[in-house]
Design brief:
By secondary structure, the chain is α+β, with helices and mostly antiparallel strands. The chain has 1 helix and 4 strands, in the order E-E-E-E-H. The chain starts with 40 loop residues before the first strand and ends in an 8-residue tail after the last helix.
């Protein structure tokens, strides 16, 4: 994985961490947390049925999620440069064949 594939700890400010009840004390375990503090935004052109993606700044990366799933959506992470390249391509019509 690339360095920016990981969210910085600051992105989880105020998060409630949870691990499996079967975990042993002081054992290696994976913990999970929801990112509740991010301010998610979607395009004003999105339809009332929420057929859109949402974007949020998550520390040094930008998160992208499915608006239909809201907080339960998986979050894709991109650098600002990657988002800028995608937006530039969209403005130039490079992805028009997809819709």
């Amino acid at each position: 994985m690339r360095e920016h594939d990981y969210l910085p700890s600051g992105a989880f400010e105020g998060a409630r961490w949870q691990k499996a009840a079967a975990s042993q004390p002081n054992s290696d375990c994976v913990e999970f947390a929801k990112i509740d503090s991010a301010r998610w935004r979607k395009a004003s052109a999105s339809q009332p049925n929420d057929d859109c993606v949402e974007f949020a700044q998550l520390g040094p990366v930008i998160g992208v999620r499915d608006s239909k799933l809201g907080p339960d959506s998986p979050i894709l992470q991109f650098t600002p440069a990657e988002i800028a390249a995608m937006l530039d391509g969209a403005k130039k019509g490079e992805f028009d064949h997809l819709i």
